[in-house]
Write a structure and sequence with these properties.
By secondary structure, the protein is an alpha/beta fold. The strands form two sheets. The chain has a seven-stranded mixed beta sheet, sandwiched between helices. A five-stranded mixed beta sheet has the order 8-9-12-11-10, with helices on one face. The longest helix is centred in the middle third of the chain and has 20 residues. The mean pLDDT is 96.
Length: 382
């Protein structure tokens, strides 16, 4: 069955007693037992909830995996995955990494005794050079956040298998609609489902998928123990949002390509990052492992003094954190999403004080271009 059909049918007819087309929301925190020692399969919502269970099953199908797990946020999902590692373990991760993940590695990870090396994962030789006897995993963002660096997943799978490493992929930017890392050989996929999967800026959620039963059991035990599971109302919102994912991603990508091409022609823009542009250094690699380019763009302005007035003068774009919603957002990574990363480190891989990140929505592309054009024009007159 094609992914568009799986998405549109999420939750339909899962309640066999009523035949409900829209997935019911089970707000109950506890469930009665038929008798002593017997269970309906549901005992307490922290452990398992009927609404969340349907979401997890349907999401797992999208990632071509038998096991899916839903969390209260994307960071809760990543934290659960990192709980697989112990003191002394070492992880190699993408240099250009979401600031929240960097913060988790540098605080909770360090306290737990887990060490991390940040490398250019698009360079297989650099990854191999970072391997030590204690290395247990590769943690990959592709495209990366925010400079849209691409990592060759086939090359990373080969390294992971050769060295008996877990390969973890943050698939937030691409979604299962555009990229399916587990099908390429990855062991674990994580998502901030708050973003494209929810798609409407109204739900905070994280998702994990794996094909490995032992990994799934360990993550579920951690989830149940600390209570980081997604609530039923948010699970329902996520199912509802994902039904239109295929349609939304097509429009996000169509708009993003047009906007990226326009930005390349602007005298005030010195660099544009978008994997759909033919001059992206890893465009061909991305095409081999993904079916689309997504809706995220980053660009650098010629003078960092332009950033604040530019942000203050957009009217259609919303200056806000997050991404992946139907509304277009513009973000200042150095002062927002990546503020916890030391300046020298983030600047070494392109997250400068003149970099802006755009989450391109589903509005008309002409209106989005016009909004940035008028903002640039106002800034030039200042």
């Amino acid at each position: 069955m094609q992914i568009e059909t799986l998405l549109a049918q999420m939750g339909n007819r899962r309640d066999v007693k009523t035949g409900a087309v829209s997935l019911p929301i089970y707000h109950s925190t506890t469930f009665s037992h038929p008798s002593v020692g017997e269970s309906t399969g549901y005992d307490y919502s922290r452990t398992k909830n009927p609404t969340r269970f349907v979401l997890e099953e349907e999401f797992a199908k999208l990632e071509q995996a038998p096991y899916g797990m839903a969390f209260a946020s994307g960071m809760a999902a990543i934290d659960a995955v990192i709980s697989l590692f112990s003191a002394g373990d070492h992880i190699i991760t993408s240099k250009d990494l979401y600031g929240g993940t960097y913060r988790l590695f540098e605080t909770i990870g360090k306290k737990a005794g887990v060490t991390v090396s940040y490398v250019e994962t698009g360079d297989a030789d650099e990854v191999k050079a970072a391997l030590i006897p204690q290395t247990r995993a590769l943690f990959i963002e592709t495209p990366s956040n925010p400079t849209l660096r691409i990592t060759d997943l086939h090359a990373m799978v080969k390294i992971a298998k050769e060295h008996n490493l877990l390969m973890i992929v943050d698939n937030t930017f691409m979604t299962p609609y555009c990229q399916q890392p587990l099908a390429l050989g990855a062991d674990i996929v994580v998502h901030s489902a708050t973003k494209y999967l929810g798609g409407h800026n109204d739900v905070l959620a994280g998702l994990v998928a794996t094909r490995d039963e032992a990994i799934a059991k360990e993550i579920l035990t951690y989830q149940n123990t600390i209570g980081s599971a997604l609530g039923p109302q948010d699970a329902w919102l996520l199912v509802r949002g994902m039904k239109t994912l295929a349609l939304r991603m097509a429009r996000h990508e169509e708009n993003a390509l047009l906007l990226a091409q326009w930005l390349e022609q602007q005298e005030d823009v010195t660099k544009v990052y978008y994997p759909g542009l033919p001059n992206h250094p890893m465009a061909e690699v991305h095409r081999r492992q993904a079916s689309g380019f997504g809706g995220m763009i980053a660009f650098e302005v010629r003078d960092e003094a332009m950033v604040v007035p530019l942000l203050n003068n957009v009217s259609l774009f919303t200056y806000a954190e997050s991404l992946g919603s139907v509304e277009s957002l513009i973000t200042y990574p150095a002062g927002q999403t990546h503020a916890d990363i030391p300046k020298a480190i983030r600047e070494s891989y392109g997250v400068t004080d003149g970099l802006l990140r755009v989450s391109v929505g589903i509005e008309h592309a002409d209106d989005l271009i016009a909004d940035l054009a008028q903002a640039f024009a106002l800034v030039r007159r200042l």
